[in-house]
Write a structure and sequence with these properties.
Keywords: Acyltransferase, Lipid A biosynthesis, Lipid biosynthesis, Lipid metabolism, Repeat, Transferase. It catalyses: a UDP-3-O-[(3R)-3-hydroxyacyl]-alpha-D-glucosamine + a (3R)-hydroxyacyl-[ACP] = a UDP-2-N,3-O-bis[(3R)-3-hydroxyacyl]-alpha-D-glucosamine + holo-[ACP] + H(+). InterPro entries: Hexapep (IPR001451), Hexapep_transf_CS (IPR018357), LpxD (IPR007691), Trimer_LpxA-like_sf (IPR011004), UDP_GlcNAc_AcTrfase_non-rep (IPR020573). Homotrimer. One of its GO terms (molecular function) is N-acyltransferase activity. The protein has about 350 residues and is α/β, with parallel strands linked by helices. It folds into three domains: about 90 residues, Udp-n-acetylmuramoylalanyl-d-glutamate--2,6- Diaminopimelate Ligase, Chain: A, domain 1; about 200 residues, Hexapeptide repeat proteins (UDP N-Acetylglucosamine Acyltransferase, domain 1); about 30 residues. It is built from five helices and 38 strands. The protein has a ten-stranded parallel β-sheet with strand order 8-11-14-17-20-25-28-31-34-37, with no helix packed on it. It has a ten-stranded parallel β-sheet with strand order 10-13-16-19-24-27-30-33-36-38, with no helix packed on it. A hairpin with a 2-residue loop joins strand 21 and strand 22. The termini are far apart.
Length: about 350
Amino acid sequence: MNSYTLRELAEALDAEIQGDETLVISSVATLENAAQGQLSFLANPKYRAQLETTQASAVLISPKALDGFSGNALVLNDPYVGFARVAQLLDTTPKSAVGIHASAVIDPSASLGEGVAIGANAVIGENVILGENVQVGPGCVIGQESILGSGTRLWANVTIYHNVHLGQDCIIHSGAVLGSDGFGYANERGQWIKIPQTGGVRIGNRVEIGASTTVDRGAIEHTEIHDGVILDNQVQIAHNDIIGENVAIAGNSTIAGSTKIGKYCIIGGNSAVAGHLTLADGTHVSGGTNVTSEIREPGVYTSTSVAMPNKLWRRNTVRFKQLDELFQRVKRLEKSVQTED
């Protein structure tokens, strides 16, 4: 287990120290549940009362919130970012694979960099290239001509089809499927004619893809996910989508085909974005929103209806169906009033 003194953490975070700089920190915890030897943080003012009762050995805190607190502290402008960085330093997550397991099936044409680890029953296909220190968890399958950049890690049972390229330091969680066929068909007199999906998938550096998320390959050109993107669990990225740098997409969201999501966008959970659209850089889509037209200006966009008692919802649904009729009645009344005038 890693441990750091408050002085060492301050240097890593470029933070100011209040209190004992020789104090040793071995893990992180919430204000409510922290114990001795642990570091906590205050990022939300509503938890201020817990600051007075916490058993944490030290806290990450902003200069504004420091007033009145006399305990050990690391003082910096964004305590939550500080918490994330300390959590990385103290991370105890095990490796997804260690060494190369005897049951792994590795094609002779595959190229393995120094320090590659491959778990039990994994399959590495023809002409696959694994960069230095790549970890491939148990049961993973990597198809022919695919490339994984150095430091990339696959957890158990990830499936990567052929011609999928991942950059450096990516994390792919269990059950994710990268490079499956896009939903491309032509209809001939009621018969569906499959369009071979001959493009690939190109994923940048430092991308994290959640459990059971799917990224379809392109129909002709590649599907692209750029640097720094984070995808939650059970997200669907369709063929030929382009996801810009540092986009975040929360769970159960679906991006239909040939859509371009600009840089720094945030897509809330259970949202759906229709195909062949463009979302401007910096767009924020609230959870549960259906995006059916292009968004050219950054901002917050929402289309959900609020929860309400079922009886009221049923009544309002009936009224919604009557909306056009009511509109026509209002038009007739307006016309009648104008005629009388």
